[in-house]
Amino acid sequence: MRKRRIRQVSRKEQRKLWITEMIMVVLAVIWFIPVYYLIVTTLKSPQEATQSPLGLPKVWMFENYVQAWNKMEYPRALFNTVQITVLAVAIIVLITSLAGYAMARTRTKWGNRFFLLFLAGLMVPFQMNIVSLFKIVKTIGLMNTVWAVILVDVAINIPQGIFLFKEFIESSVPRELEEAAEIDGCSVIQKFFVIVLPLLKPVIATVVIIVTLNVWNEFMTPLLFIQSRENSVILQEVSRNIGQFSTDWTALFPMLMLGVAPLMLFYLFMQKYIIAGVAAGAVKG
Amino acid sequence: MTKTKKKRECGSLGHYFILFILPALIIYLTFSILPFFFTFIYSFTDYSDIKIKDLDFVGIKNYLTVLKTPLMKIAIKNSLIYAVVLTGFQVILGLPLAVVLNKKLKTRNLLRAVYFFPAVFSSLIIGYLWNFILSSSDYGLINNLLHQLGVNTVNFFTADRALYSVIFTQIWQWTGWAMVIFLANLQGISPELYEAAAIDGADGRQQFFRITLPLMCPSVKIIVVTGLIGGMKAFDAIYSMTSGGPGNATETVMTVMMDKGISDGFYAVGSAFGVCFFIIVLLISGLTNKLMSKWSEAIG
Amino acid sequence: MKKKVLSMLLTAAMAMSLLAGCGGSTDTAADAATDTGAETGAEEDSSTSGEKVTLRMSYWNSEDTVQALLDYLAQAVPHVEIEYQFIDNSNYDTIIDTQLSAGEGPDIICESPGSTLRHARLGYLAEVNELAAKYSDAGTSVYSLEGNTYALPGISWFEGIYYNKALFEENGIELPRTFDEYIEVCKKFQDLGITPLAAGLKSWEPMLKNSMAFVTAEYLSTEEGKSFGEKYRNGEITMDGTWNTYLEKWSQMITEGIYTTDMTGIDHAQALEQFATGGAAMFCSGPWDYEAIMEKNPDLQIDMMPFNGTKESAGWLIGGPGCGFAVNEASANKEAAMEVLAAISTYEGQAALWENNQGGSSYLEGASFDLPEAYTSVSETLAAGNVYCPWNEWGVAASAHETYGTEFQNYLLGSQDLAVTLQNVDAAVAELLSK
Does C72 share its domain with C177? Predict the structure, then answer.
């Protein structure tokens, strides 16, 4: 039915669509200028960057990247960042899907009580607790390990994860399926992993995207808990070099670029799921 | 019906409830609730960077200090402007953007990608990048272009403009995010509704106001609530672009709290600040939630 | 496809957790100190000494500003491995305070005078009296509390006015000897269409130093003003009512359009670039920026002039002991840390430190270095000892100098008059003193 309508779209409407498209493309080009500016500047000499800020580089200065790569000890920093992000994301997905499920399915008032407790976390900026947070991490003995960063980042993101999972399960996972499984003799744990979890894929994608961005871009926790350069993450390296190269654009911009490049790749890779996924859990369609 | 059977139908998970919640709860209690609890306690003591042991109870003195802090008024005002303007633009720009990019445009996937892209940047990097773009020196991208056009320097960081300059960069960064959430919502709206409206003779604009807008309530609610909370909590972007300056023009609740409560070492006052902040945000989000629910009831 | 992505993520997560597991355990071991020494040593080169101690040292300037010192230390104390931790200025105090209050933190800490006193009072720092005896009092006094010294002064810092020699010579402009002459010089450049002074007023620093230098020349260096700092930290005097007349005069910097409101959109690095590329005749800064300026423009000929008061004098520079080296009382390797400090407290150590801070002077008895050419015009000022940092005397309220800078931004932007500006600073100081 839909297809037929599209074929029926009149010429006038087609022209309107085409004009809309042109406007959107022009807007998108303007929208993209800052990113384009970041990218082309990384490949220019300082003089050229000043003279023609938006032109394409005349000489492509790839050596800017070589210097940035070495100064940042990039492979190590990248490995640390990826390690922290992947682990934090994996933990978040596992524990908040379990908790969200429990809260969505229980009918005791405890479900809602716990839910509110978790949601309150959204309203507390974690920065205000850093002094006591630091003491706790030290007491547990996690100081200067990646686990300190991972667990704190997990804690920061728990409210959002639980919110997304609970809402999604309530709105989009039919109870009937689970009831049928239960009659077939599935245990609760089996039921969750075999029946429910596969149905959560869209919202898992959402949580993976949001938490990846949050954890990757979190600057304060690594700064607080990772003291040796051995364990430092990409943003720490960027910040270290901003101090050193603040006067030297062409050295600094490639570092900014290397700082976001992995996320850009992640984005390109996950792009398909992002549109479908980002709001899947939250919006009851 | 036996008792167990009944229990199962009610969906109660029994002891599995606590088992499932436990991992999240332990981490959350340890790294979020416990520190907040300490913060709460500290807010009634004389804890500071020169008094860390044998703390004395001082009642609500710290809360009075918070209320008396001269920067408080500017900070609350700026935070509110920041949260409301940013959230407003996310909706005003993001919603039409989503509607248009939901149409059958040839390049729509690419367009969506471009608009969403800024959301992947960390605020540290956004801060430095826009610093270069908005600088009023000859090396600032915008002023450089203006100079080439023969226009005089525009300073984006005056007392009046600085806050809006920062907000502008954040609109650039987060509108795409809002767009994606609106898109997901739009895709859930059945096309039959539009067809019916078209048969009734409704044009595009009427369709938007009669069908799209009312049904977009859930996603608008999400953007408004999270946008306001996030806006009130905003710290990184402001810090990396203006650090609250020039003067106190861009101080927000968070920058004041970090400066007074942490950097200057008034930990107890900072803690009281945090508790007040929590209550304010709680009230704002509760209120927004209520209003939005009313709206959805009214049009739903 | 989705399934594939998820399973990939899970596999990756598992692999990572294994790696994180061992990474984590080594680090805890590193905290427990000496036993990792063998490990790190073995990693470096197994032939040399078996027992290598790893010490962490933190500083708010990046590694390259102390590179020569680090190289020197690697030779002078070969059994110590220094792990350098950079924390940017705006986060430095927060991070260090947090770490120290939990009994953690770097073994060797670079401290400002203000934070040294604060940390010493809380017992976070070990006394370094024995080594401090090798330094002059001028250097150690700001790090001393109740008869003990808690940090060793590094190379001093000073800030003056770098100027572009060619621009002055080509236009036949003489170096100013008084504040009024300075204003005249600036006007001449303005008439020539050249920006007289490049300033990154997005930061609170430039106006702080510039105005305080003027007050130092006019008041703080006089008999009458000498005790201001002491009285101020004891809460016996306020800035409002004392500094007003001098700052009214200094405000010509603003009324004559030398400092403009447009400059609040420029940061320090951009101002530096403007000066280095010949876009401005002068730029207030110190030796730490020299290399950056010369890198931008190797052909630039620069010299430094001092700040002047209304009367002719040798001029004044803002500055004092730079970062002080302190030892963490809670360090598991206090002895090794002391050895490092002892190595710094030698002529060679100071020379290595000076290498990356050329122009500053050492407070170590008997260590003096030649002044580089770029400071010819301030040699008289330095010889007269006219280097002063007013807020170093404010005790625990020293950090209020930042408020002073921000309040002057407000003043520049016209949102308040001078009296209110100074009252706000007084209020911030009073609050800090009340702690």
Answer: no
**Average of per-residue pLDDT across C300-310:** 94
Is there a single domain that holds both residue C183 and residue C272?
Answer: yes
Which tokens sit at B278? 């929590």
- In this structure, are C42 and C27 located in the same domain? yes
Q: Is residue C145 part of a domain?
A: yes
| pLDDT value at residue A9 | 60
Task: Note which residues in 251-290 of chain C have CB less than 8 A from chain A.
Answer: 268-269, 272-273, 289
For residues C204 and C307, membership in a common domain is answered with yes
Distance separating alpha carbons of residues C241 and B155, to the nearest angstrom: 34
- What are the tens digits of pLDDT across the range A35-77? 999 888 888 877 777 777 788 888 787 888 888 888 888 999 9
d(CA C320, CA C390): 9
CA distance A226 to chain B (A): 16
CB A122 within 8 A of CB B33: no
The amino acid sitting at C303 is: D
| Omega cis (within 30) before B246 | yes
Query: For chain B, which chains pass the contact test of at least 3 CB pairs under 8 Å?
Result: A, C
**Which range marks the domain in which residue C306 is found?**
158-319+387-434
Question: CATH number, domain at C214?
Answer: 3.40.190.10
CA distances from C321 to B117, C262, C307, C362 (A): 47, 33, 19, 9
This prediction's pTM: 0.84
Smallest Cβ distance to C86: which of A142, A208, A240? A240
pLDDT digits (tens, 9 = 90+) for C132-143: 999 988 888 889
Residue of chain C minimizing CA distance to A143: C28
Which of the residue ranges A156-165, A269-278, C358-367 has the most confident prediction, judged by mean pLDDT?
Answer: A156-165
Residues C123 and C269 in one domain: no
Using the structure block, give the residue that is written with the tokens 């009851």. Answer: A284
Helix %, strand %, coil % for chain C, to 5?
Answer: 55, 15, 30
The total number of structural domains in chain C stands at: 2
Residues C74-91: tens digit of each pLDDT? 999 999 999 888 888 778
**Does B12 contact A107 at a Cβ distance shorter than 8 Å?**
yes
Spatial distance between the Cα atoms of B122 and B169, rounded to a whole number of angstroms: 12
Residue keyed to tokens 């500094």: C243
Predicted confidence at residue B113, as pLDDT, reads 85
Q: How confident is the model at residue A276 (pLDDT cuts 50, 70, 90)?
A: low
Q: Look at A217 and B124 and tell me if their CB atoms are within 8 Å.
A: yes
Token representation of residue C306: 């001092």
Question: Quick check: A227 contacting C, CB < 8 Å?
Answer: yes
> B17 and A285: CB-CB below 8 Å?
no
b/e C137-173 (16+ beta carbons within 10 angstroms → b): eebbebbbbeeebbbbbbbbbbbbbbbbbebbeeeeb
Q: Could you give the CA distance from residue B142 to residue B136 in angstroms, rounded to a whole number?
A: 8
Distances, alpha carbon C72 to alpha carbons C81, C152, C364, in Å: 12, 17, 17
Same domain, C119 and C231: no
In a domain, C381, yes or no: no
Q: Do C16 and A227 touch (CB under 8 A)?
A: no
Chain C partners within 8 Å of A207 (Cβ): none
CB A52 within 8 A of CB B147: no
C102 belongs to a structural domain: yes
pLDDT tens figures, B232-287: 888 888 988 888 878 889 999 888 888 888 778 888 998 998 898 888 888 888 88
Of A90, A246, A273, the CB nearest to C2: A273
Give the one of A2, A24, A249 whose C-beta lies nearest to B105's C-beta: A24
Evaluate whether residue C406 is within a structural domain: yes
**B-chain residues within 8 Å CB-CB of C121?**
50
Residues C312 and C340 in one domain: no
Distance from CA of B268 to the nearest CA of A (A): 11
* SS3 label, residue B284: helix
Whether residue C230 sits in one domain with residue C339: no
d(CA B167, CA B23): 38
